[in-house]
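[User]
Protein folding is very new to me. Any chance you could explain this protein sequence and its structure tokens? I have pasted everything here:
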Amino acid sequence: MRLIGLLNYIYTLKMKTLTLLFSLFLMCPLSVWGQSADELLSKVSDALSEGKDDYAVSLFRQAANAGEDRTEMFYWTNVDKSSEVAPRLADVLAVHYKEMRNYDKAYLFYKEFLQRHPEDVPALVSCAEMEMMRGKEKDALKTYEKILMLDADNLQANIFIGFIIIPKPRRIRRSSKKTIKR
């Protein structure tokens, strides 16, 4: 009986170890085993010169995950800002910086994207979010108003405007003043 229990314990321990190793393998980003940002950016440059914009954007996204500083420098120095793919690359960097919670840089790249696509509602919403995260509520209000001019049914803009513009009922204000006085 003890031998069976011991074998069962060893088997369970071995399976837990294998499961842990397998899950670590899946969770580890592919960029660890993949190519460096410089190698990817070299391929981005080649793809752009060959006119393979979709492939270039995909590689650019991978490069941003591998090394955002190098990717940003590549954008500023090697990308023709008048090309059709430039706003898409700016959007990749904006989304990346937003995910990394670097709101200043995300805002910068959303503004870069909006220079070419000023009526893109999802980009305007993201830009307004970045303005809020940067503490620029007045700018965010203007951006949300612009969004509502383009899309009156935009839920996020309506919620924001509703919280800012629609004042609380007087009875709620009075009861909060009574609570403060107590």
About this structure: The chain is about 80% helix and 0% strand. The mean pLDDT is 82. Residues 51 and 62 are 18 Å apart (CA to CA).
